[in-house]
Amino acid sequence: MSEKMSKQLLSQRKNGYDLITAEERLEMNAYGEEYKVFLSRGCTERECVEETIRMAEERGFRPLVRGEKLVPGDKVYRTEGNKAIILAIIGSESLEKGAVICGAHIDNPRLDLKPNPLYEDDGEVARFKTHYYGGIRKYQWVSIPLALHGVICKKDGTIIRVSIGDEPGDPQLTIPDLLPHLADKQAKEPLWQAIKAEDLNIIVGSEPYPDTEETDRIKLQVMAILNEKYGITEDDFNSAELCAVPAFRPTDIGLDRSMIGAFGHDDRVCSFASLKALFDAEKSLKRTGICILTDKEEIGSYGVTGMDSNYFDRFLEDLCRSEGADYNTCIEHSFCLSCDVTAAYDENYKYAYEKRNAGRWNGGVGICKYTGARGKSGASDATAEVMAYARRVLDEAGVLWHVCELGKADEGGGGTIAHYMARRGIATLDAGTPLLAMHAPFEVCTKLDCYMTYRAAKAFYLD
Ligand code: MN
Ligand code: MN
Questions:
Q1: Residues forming beta bridges with residue 78, ordered by sequence position
Q2: Looking at the structure, do residues 426 and 354 belong to the same domain, yes or no?
Q3: From the CA of 439, how far away is ligand 2's center (Å)?
Q4: How far is the CA of 117 from the centre of ligand 1 (A)?
Q5: Cα 8 to averaged position of ligand 2 atoms, centre (Å)
Q6: How many A from CA of 267 to the centre of ligand 1?
Q7: Which residue from 15, 210, 248, 419 has the highest number of Cβ atoms inside 10 Å of its Cβ?
């Protein structure tokens, strides 16, 4: 009797593998394969935008034209500064019933080259100086293979794409760490100070320019190679965005292949989930579905391509105008899933987590009522009513999910784009895939949780 009572009254925690059907398992594995392809095609926000446009146009999306009339089923998109993109499928209901929005970010922590990156000191080597982007643990970025991705914009308007280090046979770059034999002094430093930002200097060449009359011959030789390949001079670095990213291919992790290891799950795992869910919801959308893949989340969402910018408002206003819907009414009835990764409980660092409210491996998508740090600071804190709505939608769609916080309240915290969406007056809820080693050069998540993030996004689109 007592067992039955506990089943009725107490919440049941189960491993997702005990709950999914054989059919779901097949779909989950296929989803994982598709996601790895997306990961390998977009290392930076620009590359993710390009890949998203390619996928969208293949499915009949076209750029939104301001002032055009739209009808149910129309599929449109707009990019912002080549670094953010919004896609929409017009639903059968008026936008005054509200839009269903899934928002994720496509920027991720990395090492950006400084505007004057190239130098030669006295080590018989040329290096690039970097300025790290986002919350990295600097010691993790030394002695790993790095690739270089980005663009160089020339004064005449030409944009040169750079992608070195990811194709088989490509050269790669690295930041050599100090050898342990000589690291006594460094080893006594606190972890966060042992490697300093100004030590994150990437080696890019060691062969001197042949003319012995020249100075800085190693730097010159690197510049000569870049000039030959891209037609650039040193000044062109001033108008470039070049990012050093880990040169790791996305790969299955575990002897059972149940997990995926990759650079930049945060937040491409939720970006891909939001995007694919919108594509797959197309035929049955009632409310208009919108997918935002934004930039700058990792550095506070500021800037014209971040969620603090009004590029989303302009897009939604244009959508409303295209069908004569009232913008404010649309906003008031809209819902936004702020789709961003959360932390999975890591038994190796038990002290950092509050296990009863931690993200769970193979527990499905993590739903976060609030994020923030130290007393929910910076969180949008979804209302209990919104949480109840989410429970209903997810349960009805058979999505595996659990509620979670980032970690112990006093240990730290983090934010998402949720409060920027909430500031617009849109009911917003945080949800995402639990990760291990978030912001590390190589992050890990489970295939089941990836798949359930997609299922969650789809459930909201279809509600
Ligand atoms: Mn994130
Ligand atoms: Mn992040």
A1: 86
A2: yes
A3: 6
A4: 27
A5: 38
A6: 5
A7: 419
At 403, list the tokens.
């509620």
pLDDT at 1: 55
Domain containing residue 139: 110-246
Q: Is the pLDDT of residue 128 over 90?
A: yes
Question: Residues 344, 207: one domain?
Answer: no
> How many domains is the chain partitioned into structurally?
2
How does pLDDT run across 282-331, given as a tens digit for each residue? 999 999 999 999 999 999 999 999 999 999 999 999 999 999 999 999 99
How far lies 180's CA from each of 194, 198, 262, in Å? 13, 20, 27
Residue at a domain's end among 246, 272, 287: 246
pLDDT digits 0-9 by tens, 412-424: 888 899 999 999 9
3-state SS assignment for residue 462:
helix
First to last CA, the chain: 37
- Encoded tokens for 461: 């689109």
Cα(298) to centroid of ligand 1, in Å? 7
Eight-state DSSP code of residue 410: T
Q: Which ligand is nearest to the CA of 342?
A: 1
H helices of 100-157, in order, are none
Whether residues 22 and 52 fall in one domain:
yes
43 and 189 co-located in one domain? no
Supply the CATH number for residue 234's domain.
2.30.250.10
Distance 72 CA to ligand 2 centre (A): 35
Examine residue 3 and state whether it is found in any structural domain, yes or no.
no
Q: Establish if 281 belongs to a structural domain.
A: yes
Q: Does residue 94 surpass a pLDDT of 60?
A: yes
**44 falls within a domain:** yes
What gap in Å lies between CA 79 and CA 340, rounded to an integer? 20
Out of 187, 220, 246, pick the residue that ends a domain: 246
Question: How does pLDDT run across 154-169, given as a tens digit for each residue?
Answer: 999 999 999 999 888 9
Residue 224, pLDDT score: 98
How much is the pLDDT for 3? 73
Q: Give pLDDT tens digits for 230-263.
A: 999 999 999 999 999 999 999 999 999 999 999 9
